[in-house]
Request: fold
Amino acid sequence: MINIIPQNIIRFFVLVFIQVVILNNLQFSGFVNPFIYILFILLLPFETPSWLLLIIGFVTGLTIDVFSGTIAIHTIATTLAAYARPFVLTLFAPRDGYESRTSPTLKYYDLLWIIRYSVVIVLIHHSCLFLVEVFRFSGFFYTLLRIILSSILTSILIIISQLLFYKNK
Reply:
């Protein structure tokens, strides 16, 4: 259990670095913005208490906001994703429940489960992020297109990272 803390600290810094240095500088026609940092929230252990999830989500979003020069949009979206995570996990819980001392990775769960779980959290995060960023109903379909395309790209990157770094059981 003590090994999980340094592993997650390293994961946090690596994902924030990738997001700030590489992915924030990539935009495809203004429609697609990949936000891989949400993977940090997705991969936290199942036993993470809800209060700690909210704090971690807040700090993660705030860190991205500070380095991106945005005002609280990532903080709001990531905190919402962290808040929604326990409900989504309950929605997709296996019949026997989750194995103790595991995390939602391809190492412990199958690819279909990982896809469903990550897509739902990514959609929640991206919907909040882009709707707060625009904060108006004019151009709703443009914003909807950005949500869908960015969610697809982010989900693909998350699945690729799972396939690269975790072995299936």
